[in-house]
Amino acid sequence: MSGPSPRPPRAAFGKLLLNEARMAWRVPFGLLLGLGFPLLLLVIFGSSPKLTRPIPGLGGQSYFQASFPVLVGWTILALSCLVLPQTLVRYREMGVLRRLSVTPVPPTWLLAAQVVLNIGLAAVGMALLLIVGRAAFGLALPKDIPGFWLVILLTITALFAIGLCMASVISNSAAARAIGGLFFYAMLFFAGLWVPREMMSMPLREISDWTPLGASMAGIQNAMTGSFPPLQSLLLLAADAVVFGYLAVHYFRWE
Amino acid sequence: MSPALDTDSNTAITASHLTKTYGLVKAVDDVSFSVREGEIFGVLGPNGAGKTTTVECLTGLRRPDSGSIKLLGRDPSRDHDALHAVVGVQLQASAVQDRLKVKEILDLYRSFYHHPADVRELVDGLGLGEKRDAQYRALSGGQKQRLSVALALIGRPRIAVLDEMTTGLDPQARRDTWALIERVRERGATIVLVSHFMEEAERLCDRVALIDRGRIIATDSPQGLAEKVAGGKRVRFTPSRPFPDALLTERPEVKSLEHQGRHVEVIGSGELVNVVILTLAREGIEAKDVQMGTANLEDAFVRLTGRLLHDAGEGPTP
Fold it and tell me: Which residues of B touch A104 (CB under 8 A)?
């Protein structure tokens, strides 16, 4: 039979992305949790004289300076493992993905739009932390620039793979909120939000090194102070990306 | 490409020997039908009869365990993207992003197609014009339903598959939707209408398949089914004096005759009322208190299954 070109118009992806962005603005859960909250903490830490003083236990860094990688990790983690899976699980639950699967546009496009949007928001969040931290509070910028971006890239890939994997195996919104929330706080704990990694006792520090966000912190901290990120961190993040990416693709269900 | 089907260019949909089992339940059991291009084809039956599973197989959401389906020569489970460019679907249990406004949703879905329909015309035809700025989550059930019909038609589909499209609509909205479907048909589209609503099928469908417990029990035009299965027309009257049954039952239009006390009920087809009155008049008998009725699809369904459409699920199981 003859017919119109089987490929859907490419502009459809732009429209999907635009509309997902509109909704992120209308329900600013992701904006507040992923961008607003870490920025607020940065401002609080940066304005406190006690927290901007160098501390011997932190290798002469201030608590403010040491918390910067954790806040970057927070931004990526919130958007990849809270916002993304909750949105996708809800779309599946409501039948949004089912509806889309009877149009010429495959539902993978909506997934892709969500991933692109949240990575974009994470990038904006990181830029805000860097710019505000530097301009207002004299944050020391990373010394090993390629190392810094390499860790950031791997962190984004690994955490978004984990987020997509959550979206694949979790079947309802309540579970997505509970599991996502638990994972979020556990990861931030091991990343050193409450107890800086330098001050963690040995088994705790050891565990931290093997968590995705802990590995990411080790890498970012190295890059901040001028050495290339440890190979173990880079390999761990890459392995997380591959394993969870595979699981996400393998277990994803449209309804 | 399926040369066998393309030889008959007037066939839009062919389903042959579809079977789909969930656990021990045969949701669809050896279902076959074909739909001509430009036809409105109804799939009618009670809840749980297998209508939705049939639709899901037609639209590629489920792969049947056995049997084959071709829409415009294409296999829905293989040719997904190409098929959905020309097949519009309205599903139950589906939704759109709920924080989007109606106009944004329409604009989004419009962008999925190369030659979309005129959105204004569609929206006005479905009475959604005033709701363009409302978010999806603020719509009533009936408004969501109408939007979902709009989304099924927004790509100017050559085939539209509509599952329970007027469920939850008030009578006026229902009639507006029917009028819209008739306009879509005039454009030459083929429509598969899944319903358990007899009046809808009688008004819109060229042919209907009655489906019960996963099987098609009859396929014909609504009138044909009503006449063939349920006897067609009924005339009830009180004769001015008794007469031999044969007087009427000899007539080809008359199928059966029954005495109900002083009344007589005749079931048949064609110009039944005229036949009854004129035949009796020739013998000098007057038919008083004449009441006429038409058997409908509902009667046909009852006759075929011994159960009512709406509560067939609760009926006695053989």
Answer: 81, 84-85, 112-113, 155
